[in-house]
Amino acid sequence: xxxxxxxxxxxxxxxxxxxxxxxxxxxxxxxxxxxxxxxxxxxxxxxxxxxxxxxxxxxxxxxxxxxxxxxxxxxxxxxxxxxxxxxxxxxxxxxxxxxxxxxxxxxxxxxxxxxxxxxxxxxxxxxxxxxxxxxxxxxxxxxxxxxxxxxxxxxxxxxxxxxxxxxxxxxxxxxxxxxxxxxxxxxxxxxxxxxxxxxxxxxxxxxxxxxxxxxxxxxxxxxxxxxxxxxxxxxxxxxxxxxxxxxxxxxxxxxxxxxxxxxxxxxxxxxxxxxxxxxxxxxxxxxxxxxxxxxxxxxxxxxxxxxxxxxxxxxxxxxxxxxxxxxxxxxxxxxxxxxxxxxxxxxxxxxxxxxxxxxxxxxxxxxxxxxxxxxxxxxxxxxxxxxxxxxxxxxxxxxxxxxxxxxxxxxxxxxxxxxxxxxxxxxxxxxxxxxxxxxxxxxxxxxxxxxxxxxxxxxxxxxxxxxxxxxxxxxxxxxxxxxxxxxxxxxxxxxxxxxxxxxxxxxxxxxxxxxxxxxxxx
Length: 522
What we know:
Elements: H1 3-10, H2 14-30, H3 36-46, H4 51-67, H5 69-78, H6 81-99, H7 108-133, H8 138-181, H9 183-188, H10 194-206, H11 213-227, H12 231-260, H13 266-291, H14 297-319, H15 323-336, H16 339-386, H17 391-406, E1 425-430, E2 444-448, H18 461-466, H19 481-487, H20 504-509, H21 518-521
Antiparallel strand pairs: 1-2
Helix pairs in contact: 2-7, 2-8, 3-4, 3-8, 4-7, 4-16, 5-7, 5-11, 5-16, 6-7, 6-8, 7-8, 7-16, 8-13, 8-16, 11-16, 12-13, 12-16, 12-17, 13-15, 14-15, 14-16, 14-17
Region (Disordered): 457-506
GO molecular function, one term: monocarboxylic acid transmembrane transporter activity
Keywords: Membrane, Transmembrane, Transmembrane helix
């Protein structure tokens, strides 16, 4: 982002409302899939189907939010964070409602995939908006918002179990749909930033009248293809894939290994596993303080967390022989491993910059999702060969590999940015009544810094310098006009800029007020 635009966003107090909305978007929508373990048992109890079919069903449900990441990022690029999050609530609610009508469990592959796609929109929209509102403290803001996922991993399994006991599986799906629908309110609170507005303006100027949804898809495909030619980004994707193979898969097999290998009861194993969520809740917030320190940075934090996680994995098997040790391992796993997930978002912008960050994050989510989908079958084979004692040893080895690969990831050069915030757009003031309209407010004002009449905007500064004239910052007040005339420079009268570029249709689309002289732009 340009410095001027970034300063304007950083000074906007509404960004804290957006941060709160992002937190609840994660809690009420994106984190719902953490109930996958309880849902797995419920589907087995209600339908006479084999465990293998249900296992793949739940694996798809828990990873779909990431697999559909590129589509979610394309939706975001075609609209904005507000519409993306609002749509996520509608889709997740629809998927849950359709799941309550299922009589053949095979339909869950479709209905739960709809839910997963809705969660993907929530994850992408709720995260990317923070990068626009907190350009200098992105890790800090993302840590707070994604702590909603950590809180959800601790609460959603218990919530689903309570709903199953009170309303059965069908009723539980309906109520969860209502929970997800609340994220629509969060989306309405996410005002478009000047970066998003400028992106709309640029796209409108380059799009032809015959622009269609098919053209949008082609553009998104071309953009993703260009990103995938970046060798630095491919190294980062491999880092993400190796980490994701270990992270979610360990959570899947942890209760089973505690029961079979260590002799804990089912209730004890479930309680121990919940401590991963407690550690995750704390660390997702705290890691932001370290990663925003310029002397440390997100990459060093990621490497450090993986190395500490390696030490935890080395000691895990022996520590879990004792009850306190088992709780400590679960808590430490959530404390040191979970923050790496939020760092993937900020590291994506670290590698690609703001121009391609949103699209790149969609690809990162897709890679993360495929690793989460392939991890359990691969781990199951290895555990059959080596036993449950190898669970954390395999995980630790993968964390070490991911840490070593990440050391070769390089930062994007900010000088290569093609877009950003114009310096003349310094402030966005938006006032909304109640919830505003569904897909945007009809009452917000863009304040554009306007130079005083008589200024040349700096275009003729060289003429003034050659004539030895002194030009005060921002204006010459017309006193130096003779210098311009002697040098043969043409000095155009300044016209206040039109944020809509003179395009009435675009101004309507962006809800831009009529605060400029239309006759001057005709």
